[in-house]
Amino acid sequence: MHLNTEETDIIVRGCGPTGAMLAGYLGTMNVRCIVLEREGEIVTDPRGIALDEDGIRLVQGLGFSLGDHHDLTKGAVMVMDYGTSEGGTGHVGFICHKQPGLEKYLRKKLAETKAVDFRPQSTIVGISEDDDHVYVEYKDKNGEIRGRRRW
C-alpha cells in the first residue's frame, strides 16, 4: 500500500492538557506540528485535575490569565491549602481546575495558531523509520491511513 506522506516537524500524540500545552508552545514558536487525538470531542473525565506552580506559569505563558482567584476563567473552582501560600515562583503552590475547561482554552489557542494542525478522531497504527525520517501511520476520522515524516 502506498501511503500519502505529508511532512511536518513534530507529531504530538494526544490532546489532553500535556499534549495541548506542548502543541501550543510549539505553535507560538512557529514549529509545524500535527496533534493526533483519538477522541472526537473534549473528554469529560479528568485526565488531570491540578496545576502546580510550573503548570500555572506555563498556562500563563500561552496567554491565559489566571486572575485574582488563580482560575482559568473568572472564579476559582477550588484552591487547596497544603501548608504554604506560595510556591517558589510566587504563585500559589498549586490549583485545581476542571479539565474540560482547561482543554477548551488550550484547543482554542491551537486553533489560532497556523503552525498547529489538530486532527481529532485519529489513531496511530504504526511507526517506522529509515536513515532520514520517522514515519507515523494513522487512521483519521475518514478511515484513511497517512504517513508523516521528519519527527
Automatic annotation (TrEMBL):
The record, for SUPFAM superfamilies, names: FAD/NAD(P)-binding domain
- Stored Pfam families: FAD_binding_3 (PF01494)
Which parts of the sequence belong to the FAD-binding domain? 7-144
Q: Name one GO molecular function term.
A: 3-(3-hydroxyphenyl)propionate hydroxylase activity
* InterPro entries on file: FAD-bd, FAD/NAD-bd_sf, PheA/TfdB_FAD_monoxygenase
* UniProt KW Oxidoreductase keyword: yes
Q: Which Gene3D superfamilies does this UniProt record tie to the protein?
A: FAD/NAD(P)-binding domain
Q: Which GO terms of type biological process are on file? A: 3-(3-hydroxy)phenylpropionate catabolic process
**Coiled-coil parts of chain:** none
Q: What keywords is this UniProt entry annotated with? A: FAD, Flavoprotein, Oxidoreductase
Q: Which PANTHER family match?
A: 3-(3-HYDROXY-PHENYL)PROPIONATE/3-HYDROXYCINNAMIC ACID HYDROXYLASE (PTHR43476), FAD-BINDING MONOOXYGENASE (PTHR43476:SF3)
In Swiss-Prot or TrEMBL terms, this protein is called FAD-binding domain-containing protein
**Taxonomic source organism:** Bifiguratus adelaidae
